[in-house]
Amino acid sequence: MKITAKMVKELRDITAAGMMDCKKALTEKEGNMEAAIDYLREKGMAKAAKKAGRIAAEGMIFDGVSADAKTALVLEFNSETDFVTKSDEFIQFGKNAIKVALKNGITTIEALKAADLNGETIETRLTSLIAKIGENMNLRRIESVTTEGFVTTYNHMGGKLGVIIEMTGEATEENVKKAKGIAMHVAAMDPGYLAPEDVTTEDLKKEMAIARVQLLEEGKPEKIIDNILKGKERKFYEESCLVKQVYVRAENKETIEQFAGDITVKGFSRFKVGDGIEKKVEDFAAEVAAQING
After folding, report:
1. Of 72, 78, 79, 112, residue with least CA distance to 96
2. C-alpha angle 85/86/87, rounded to 5°?
3. pLDDT bracket for residue 279 (50, 70, 90)
4. Contact call for residues 245 and 193 (beta carbons, < 8 A)
5. Which helix (H) or strand (E) holds 167?
6. CA distance 266 to 89
């Protein structure tokens, strides 16, 4: 029997399974819609798809560095509950995904999902894991940094936060130790910019406008405010720019720039689990009422 696009769409609408999975199911069951639905349920594909509406706002950050320390990756892998992130299967999946990404030079989630892992795509493996555990999971975002210098990573709070640091110089033991310290600082201090030159004119104007209003409300004379704002600008750079911040482990108030010494911070990436995800607040009473009234 010929499998039409309309049939595939109908099955997809019913099960929310992937297009190719629906086509395969219909082909296997010779166009029998009910049998195809059962096939997808048996394979865990329809069951997994029904969970796709749940918000996966928990999770872990996984990280990896290539053997030559030229490429680093951070990956956010989400789940619905923190409990699942502690399972061996969840952790192993994240580790495998990072290994595949590093090995294949992958830089996007789409490419990662399509990549092969022991004869199956990462996406297929994820679908199976969702069906097995019974909770929605999502490969949310990935970032890759490749450099002529060296890179290293830092993982904080049991995978709740991950950092990549890009440095100039060689990946000697001493330099990597310094870079790890700077990555830890980024995790703790969450700088908004790398250096003063990275602060946009718009951002600086906004900060200074806020400071001006505060000074006026404090009763400072208009004629001295411009001089005060120069100090405020310097303070803003010291607080917001990584290289100007005082290193958190410094005993002598040295800045990150000074702590780095002969090597230079070229860039950083900071991933925190759930950043930007709006967690759904469940109204249990409303849910029960809806089920009764339904």
Report:
1. 112
2. 95
3. low
4. no
5. strand 161-167
6. 36
